[in-house]
Design brief:
With 472 residues, the chain is α/β, with parallel strands linked by helices. It has one domain: Alpha-Beta Barrel (TIM Barrel), CATH 3.20.20. It is 38% helix and 14% strand. It has 16 helices and 13 strands. Helix 3 runs parallel beside helix 5, helix 8 runs antiparallel to helix 9 and helix 15 runs parallel beside helix 16. The protein is globular. It binds D-gluconic acid (GCO). D-gluconic acid binds next to loops.
Length: 472
């Protein structure tokens, strides 16, 4: 039961969550996450991303770990204010050179870098000018994109524009739970939303026209997803509708991002629901936003369970208290990968790539020096089997990026939530590959054929001295 031969097995991380060394190091300027890290009560326990995993200094060691796990690909992001401290204008050569070295290091070790241009570390200097609310913001992003494309596109061929617009606009500008921590009226949220979509479109155009190697481009959105409560046609249809209906004025409605980007229009039900608060769409905007994309990227962690209600409307079936939940208290729903990919494939008809999937668990280093995260193994095993079912039913699935290669700074949750295949002791920066890391290696090396074995730990052993050989 293997995946297709050219299936891409990867892991992902994001600049602000792992690099550390913000705070002026080598000319790096503040992002909105540095600002919010300083705001009392914003991040759990006063944690900050100032040091994170010190990946900025330890990237060579981390790439060796990725290589030892047999990753084909690594999804990384670029910290905009490290490269352009003012957001536009002057380039910080030292910051840019860091990404140049990282890309070289990955390629030298046989790992393909998949680069995300923006994963939330928005330059403070541009926030001071209104950030995404400023109608010039998409041009600022285009200018930054040009700098990155000019530097890296001779070696990088796979790109994502924006990571999870639903979060950096919705959680960042509507609920205020994420940086920059604003709670704006819906009209303003949609203004920022529309500007971010324009930024996406302009970046794709630049990648197409200016990349030195032909660019493959997509994005990494997330949104509310749904899986059917049974295999009945009605429940499947209910889950499909729940996935694609605009059900509220929050930013987690799939079509609110996907339809403009892939079809060149906002969905009618969303326009009706938002009414006067809908974005102002100027002539030509949709031509900018709707650029040809090579794949649908999607970050999926869980989905709602949905059945067709007696009134013919989708009805959400709540998960009971004793349901399996992750440490974040997210429900464990392997069927989400099976159904979300299928629904997206039906509607947008593009190859799919899972840009993030994983879970946080309460891991620690055991007396034997290892990290026995059996629940992560079981979770990934189940979700990958769900993905395989979708592939077997004809959905074009290109690959899978596990979130995350390292434990890291989980935004407002600080360091409480550990998502890594590799444990990080933040006091010493010592890395320890978890059991799940070794297990994932065996999945990659067998192209998925070990999935589903009754004891996923059968058939492989962590080399005794492996973790001890990693320098700390
Ligand atoms: C997101 C981001 C990641 C998170 C991960 C776990 O989805 O919030 O893309 O940066 O760390 O999803 O929450």
């Amino acid at each position: 039961m293997a995946f297709r031969d050219d299936f891409i097995w990867g892991a992902a991380a994001a600049s602000y969550q792992i690099e550390g060394n913000t705070q002026g190091v080598d000319g790096c300027a503040d992002s909105v996450w540095d600002m919010c890290s300083r705001r009392k009560g914003f991040v759990l326990d006063g944690n900050t991303g100032f040091n994170a995993c010190d990946h900025y200094n330890r990237y060579e060691e981390d790439v060796q770990i990725m290589k030892s796990l047999s990753l084909d690909a690594y999804r990384l992001s670029i910290m905009w204010p490290r490269v352009m401290p003012e957001g536009t204008g002057k380039v910080n050569q030292t910051g840019l050179d860091y990404y140049d070295r990282l890309v070289d290091e990955l390629l030298a070790n046989g790992i393909d870098p998949w680069v995300t241009l923006f994963h939330w570390d928005y330059p403070m200097a541009l926030f001071h000018k209104g950030g995404w609310l400023n109608d010039d913001s998409s041009d600022w992003f285009a200018e930054y994109t040009r700098v990155i494309v000019d530097k890296l596109s001779d070696r990088v061929s796979n790109w994502f524009t924006l990571n999870e617009q639903a979060c950096f606009i919705g959680l960042g500008h509507q609920s205020g739970m994420h940086a920059p921590g604003l709670q704006l009226a819906t009209k303003e949220v949609n203004r920022a939303w529309h500007n971010a979509l324009l930024a996406h479109g302009k970046a794709v155009k630049i990648l197409r026209e200016e990349a030195k190697k032909p660019a493959k481009v997509g994005a990494a959105p997330c949104f509310r997803t749904a899986a059917p409560a049974s295999n009945s046609e009605q429940d499947i249809e209910a889950a499909r509708q729940r996935t694609f209906n605009v059900v509220d004025d929050q930013m987690f409605n799939a079509t609110w991002w996907m339809d403009p980007a892939f079809k060149g229009e906002y969905p009618q039900d969303g326009l009706a629901l938002f009414g006067n608060d809908a974005p102002e769409v100027k002539d030509g905007d949709m031509d900018i936003i709707c650029q040809p994309l090579d794949f649908v990227g999607i970050n999926v962690y869980n989905s709602e369970l949905v059945k067709m209600g007696a009134n013919g409307q989708p009805e959400v079936v709540p998960y009971p208290n004793d349901y399996p939940y992750t440490h974040f208290r997210w429900p464990v729903t392997p069927e989400s990968l099976r159904w979300t990919t299928q629904f997206l494939y039906e509607r947008y008809n593009k190859p799919l790539i899972i840009t993030e999937n994983g879970l946080s668990t309460n891991d620690w280093v055991s007396l034997d020096g290892k990290v026995h995260d059996t629940t992560r193994i079981d979770f990934l095993n189940r979700y990958l089997l769900g993905l395989k079912q979708a592939a077997d039913s004809g959905v074009d699935i290109m690959g899978y990026f596990q979130w995350s290669i390292l434990d890291n700074f989980e935004w407002a949750e600080g360091y409480l939530q550990r998502f890594g295949l590799v444990h990080v002791d933040y006091a010493t920066q010592k890395r320890t590959i978890k059991d799940s890391g070794f297990w994932y290696k065996s999945v990659i090396e067998s192209n998925g054929s070990v999935l589903g074995s009754s004891n996923p730990l059968d058939g492989w052993r962590a080399p005794e001295d492996f973790n001890r050989n990693i320098k700390s």
